[in-house]
Amino acid sequence: MHFHTVVSVASPIFFIVWWHLAFQNLPALGNSDLRFSPTWTIAAWLIPVANVIVPYYVMVEVWQGSHPGNLTAREGRGAAGASIVGLWWGLFLISHFCALVVWPPGGLQWEDAGLTAFANWVEIVGAVLIVLSGLVTIRLVNAIDRNQHRRAQLVAGQGPLGPCCDGEGSARG
Questions:
Q1: How far apart are CA 135 and CA 120, in angstroms?
Q2: Which of 47, 75, 116, 128 is an S-S bond match for 110, by CB 3.0 to 4.6 Å?
Q3: Which pTM does this prediction carry?
């Protein structure tokens, strides 16, 4: 089995497990008015058509419900730094669209030299976008993790927000 295959299979599994656990933390972080349940972190990927829309909204709820400056997930609509969720989802969708163009279901024969060149460029763009998507995903996961830790401290009464977190959950310098 090739390294690429292992990473391509394991990465989404680890991400979904993390996402599910991050969502499960939301009630303990003071969120009681959630639109989704932790089940949606898995089901969102499995329902055709919904899998293009629902993961974004579930991640927005995780982002907003994790942010130390929001009292509830719904209160955090438009929370500072929430654009990282849109960037994450946009890169994910566009990179996968590129793969669908190059490798459509049922296969496609690129017999025309012009179409082959086009397919090669789409594949290159898609590969670059997948790398960028991965980097944004890492930043998003780290920010949510950091925000959840800080919010847990606040819920436990261990002090005010302080200078630790900006809108994206990163340290202010």
A1: 23
A2: 116
A3: 0.79
